[in-house]
Write the structure tokens for this entry.
Amino acid sequence: MKNEIDNIYNQAISVIEKITNGEALEALRVEYMGRKQGKLTLLMKNIPDLSIAEKREIGPLINKVKNALTIAFDKKEKTLGQITNSENSFFDITLPGEKFNIGTLHPITQVRLQVEKIFQKMGFEILNPNEIDDDYHVFTSLNLPPQHPARDMWDTFWTENDLIPITHTSSMQNRAMKEKTPPFGVIVPGRCFRHEATDAHHEHTFYQVEGLYIGENINLSHLIGTILTFLQEYFQKELRYKIQPSYFPFVEPGLEFLVSCVMCDGKGEKDKIPCSTCGHSGWLELIPCGLTHPKVIEMAGLDPKKYSGFAWGMGLDRLVMLKYGIEDIRHFHAGDLRFLKQF
Amino acid sequence: MKLSLNWIGQFVDIDKRKAEELAQRVSVSLTEVEKIENFRGVDVVMEIENKALTHRPDCFSHIGIAREIACIERLNFKNPLEKLNKKKLTFPKKTLPLQVTLKEDNLCKRYTAVILKDIHINPSPLWLQERLLACGVKPINNVVDVTNFVMLELGQPLHAFDYEKIKEKGNTREIIVRLARRNERITTLDGIQRELKKDMIVIADLEKAIGIAGIMGGANTEISEDTKTIVIESANFNEYSIRRTGKITGLHTEATLRFEKGQDPNLTYPAIVYVIQLLEKYAKAKLVSSIIDIYPQKTKQKSVVINTQKITRRIGTEIKDTEIKKILKRLEFEIVEEKDDQLKLAVPSFRNDIEIEEDFVEEIARIYGYDKITPQLPTRAINPVTEDLERKNSNNILSILSFLGLHEIYSYSFVSEYLYRKAQLDHQKMLTIKNPISPELRYVRDSIIPSVLEKAEVNCRNFEEFGIFEIGKEIHSLSLKKLPEEKKKISGIYYSKNQNETFYKVKGIVETLLNHLDITNYQFVLQENPQPFLDPNKSAQIKLLIYNTTGNLYKSKVQMAKEKPTEIILGYLGNLNKEVRNNFSMNGCATVFDLDFESLLVNIPEKNRYHPLSRYPSLFEDLSFIVSGNLPVETLRQKIDEVDEQISNVTLKERPFYSVKFGNNKKSVTFTIEYRNSKKTLNNTETQFIRHKIIQTLKKEYQAQIRE
């Protein structure tokens, strides 16, 4: 019996060596070690019939052989597997890459940075407004004394101590003129507030970029040139423009700067469907602006005979909505990651 | 405002069929035309935007717009006022008595009135009704319609009182313009009883108020079908007072709209003449008084001197003087004097918006055409622009935070008491808004955290793990007399439903941010008074240690260890306590952080110090110690770092772990130690010596056992 075991072992080892594929290896494993008819298994079934002395000798021997063969089979399987994998297996480049969780910046921040960059390139400095400011800076210094009828144009919040969550970042005009030496250009991006119920198109909290340029002999052509240059840089396309009279007490004249609709290129429709962005008109009323009122210059301590300038205010929210086609302004403050993760 | 083109056509010869082209020219020269509409096939209605005309009371009438159109279209303007002003009226010998008294001159600039008798109240003629309907005004009866008609044509609001209903005393009746009395009430024509405030102007008889001046008449003197005798009021009230009263009462009538902009006082007379004419014709009315006209202070003729050169310089394009003069004439500015480029102009009384030379930049430019100006950029020296501290670094901060996986959110600056209560914060120190839109927006926030928690709650429903942050302002009201202090903060939260600890995630984010900004001397210490929403055992203050670097920029670390640095508190981080997590419906673990933006910006070093590369190799060695479970790892690490100048770096190799093998509440801490000498290669004996020093120091200070 001892010889028989040795033979089985030697035989098996030599055959395993020659095996070249997985299926043959598995068949061989069944032949020797299969649970029912394996050669080694059959031998083991004889053990109970042996004498005690034989049992002591044969039992451990069979176990040893069984272990050795198991190792040999496993090893061969591994070798065969490696060969198969490296030579034949498919390298799946479509599997997803390792995942990195990267966050996002709010779309208004992204557009603000973009706007800031364009104006910085054009030589404008950036100022930060107060979020809560006094009547003098928000209204009076802008040629809007108390009881001025035009104050109604701004729906204003008031704090208990008669301060104002700013209605526009024009609140920095007076400070800018007091601090800087002309010629200078500044922009003031900031959060503004108006007392208005919120719906898809209206928000009580919004973002504005005020611009102010003061120098000698500044005129309407400079105002138009500056705003047009900015808008073409921002939208990266040639735009037609149109100017309409408007009224703001801190500019004279007060104007509304309109550009050809960036969605339908001023045609009023796209693929024969009326353009909803411009309300079919082909024009976008984008930037209220004007030449700085001499009283505003004077109140800031500059000589309006010597200096003139221009100012404008534009809504960042609007630029963002135009850029991405966002239909509901309420998304901006909802904090919903399903919205924010898209930017 | 709606305008009938038939009506305008009476004063200027326009072609109704070319209304669209006309509208385009009106839009770029006066105000935006919002709509052109056919009215019942007989008229064309042009609807214009009022906002750009806030300063142009004259344009709230058909003659005002007709005058503008005549100017824009270079057509003749047939002004009806001239005829009305010259009209000869015949007054009866026998008159009814009426006295008008102005108690407050400065509140009523002019009061013109007349009495008409034998009124037949009937519907107005169809043509008149059509005019009103085209402008969106409902016809009522001939008297009311005529007053509305004249207002729409000339811009002068009018009112008719029933003469018989005015209180008679002795042999006369009196109309008094005065301020309202305390607790005075009036039921207005709309049937609503209104309480009057003491600074409102009222029209009264000897007994009671019979109208709120410039806003709406009283029901007590209303015209009815039986009315036979009426008083027509054509007055001019102080625009500021009317505006205030309109706002308080919430009554925005056609009259208010015109009065609050400041109508021309010279309109009251021609308007009343026009009303008389029309009522004589359509209500069979007869004059039964002369025209009572109280005009205490006649408005003075204003004049402005302009320099045509200066005007064209401001416009930025060459315009000939002859062209300028033509435009001025059409707009009814009369040239009183002329010398070289200087023109002295008489301002017509209906243009109360014109005050200074700059006003003519607009007048000339808009008629000449903004489209004729060639755009150009201002020229100046090309000095580089100074960049503020925030712009220099905020891009960097924003991109680091987002690259570390945080999403930026925006939330309102206004918060509610309820939100603060949920976050276990005191709302009482916050500034309040007097006129909030809703109670949820009543306070101006002095912390960003509650808003961040609110937004986290929103997202817990859809995401199991996320990080968000906001850069926003805290508003601290220090004194009600001063502007509040505004502090910009970076506040955020990291939430995970499944992870049982997020503290180290957030700490890692903060550390990475600081390291990336080259801020290295920071320290995390347990907060003594943690914010109420935090778990007191899991919150840390973030401190910056500022060493005095004057004199010696390259201090050795042993030197630095001896020096006492200035401490700046940069912010804090910490886990939300269970109650607050529950309040915001969070199931897992959540860590918040709050960093002071300004402190961060000002402490970003200008230049990071360069460390020369060592020419000699470093030796690395891992050392494990068994220490008390309560000993902070950082204390241990710093101690090792200070042992010898030749220890160039000490880092934690793996998270500490506890085992019963080490004893009760003992943990194993493993550090990787880098030995280096910048002047030579260290040999084993030397590192052995340092290692021995480390082991001895830790044993002495913390009873630390080296683990072999």
Q: What stands out?
A: Chain A has two domains: 2-88, 107-340. The first strand of chain A starts at residue 125 and ends at 126. Chain A touches chain B through 83 residues (CB under 8 Å). The two ends of chain A are 78 Å apart (CA to CA).
